[in-house]
Amino acid sequence: MNEQNGSLELIVGEQRRRFLRLAGSAAALLPIVAITGCGSDAPQTPPAAASPSSPAEQDAQPERALETAPEPAADVASQALPELELDNPTARALGYQHDANLIDAQQYPQRQPSHLCSNCALYSGREGDEWGPCSLFPGKAVNAGGWCTAWAPRGSG
Ligand code: SF4
Questions:
Q1: Which of 50, 74, 125, 140 is the Cys-Cys partner for 84 at CB 3.0 to 4.6 Å?
Q2: 85 φ, ψ to 5°?
Q3: Are 86 and 96 in contact (CB under 8 A)?
Q4: Average pLDDT, stretch 74-91?
Q5: What is the reported pLDDT for 80?
Q6: What value does the mean pLDDT of the chain take?
Q7: Which of 144, 98, 89 is nearest to 122 (CA)?
Q8: Secondary structure of the chain in the HEC alphabet?
Q9: What ranges do the domains of the chain cover?
């Protein structure tokens, strides 16, 4: 333990001497820098001005970051998305309707009355919401009472 302390003191002492040598050299250069103005007419800002001025300010910075942090993904997903347009090419190709009662049973005999977007495996809207996201239509909301030919029962994947 004492041997370690001795080594540590030697290291610290050597670093202190190196620092004092560098500080002395820097001090010697200061008058030269002042005379030449470092080749710029712009006022010189001391480096200390760029850093936070007090520990209290430093502590407050994470709080400011939290105030501007993005909302959690769940909140974003629950925000209202624009409704899927019926003339969306994919929606048309899949025979999507906002109201599954409007689905032509002869054209789409595979559809059962219980098949709705709200119970489709690709739907991620909240229960009770009229509209919600569908993974087939990113950034759009489909109607919970809608349907398309890509309907798949939940739990089948
Ligand atoms: S894939 Fe499912 S949730 Fe999406 S539009 Fe078709 S039926 Fe509705």
A1: 140
A2: -80, 140
A3: yes
A4: 81
A5: 86
A6: 71
A7: 144
A8: CHHHHHHHHHHHHHHHHHHHHHHHHHHHHHHHHHHHHHHCCCCCCCHHHHCCCCHHHHHHHHHHHHHHCCCCHHHHHHCCCCECCCCCHHHHHCCCECCHHHCCCCCCCCCCCCCCHHHECCECCCCCCCEEEECCCCCCEEECCCECCCCCECCCC
A9: 1-40, 75-157
Reply yes or no on whether the pLDDT at 120 is more than 70. yes
Cβ–ligand 1 contact at 116 (below 6 Å): no
Q: Whose alpha carbon is nearest atom 6 of ligand 1?
A: 148
Q: Which of 129, 151, 154 to mutate to test the pocket of ligand 1 (most atoms within 8 A of CB)?
A: 151
Residue of minimum CA distance from atom 8 in ligand 1 = 117
Q: From 100, 97, 152, select the one nearest 122 (Cα to Cα).
A: 152
Q: Report the pLDDT value the prediction gives residue 78, as an integer from 0 to 100.
A: 47
C-alpha to C-alpha distance for 83 and 50, rounded to whole angstroms? 48
Q: How confident is the model at residue 77 (pLDDT cuts 50, 70, 90)?
A: low
More confident residue, 35 or 141: 141
What the block records as the tokens of 125 is: 């809207």
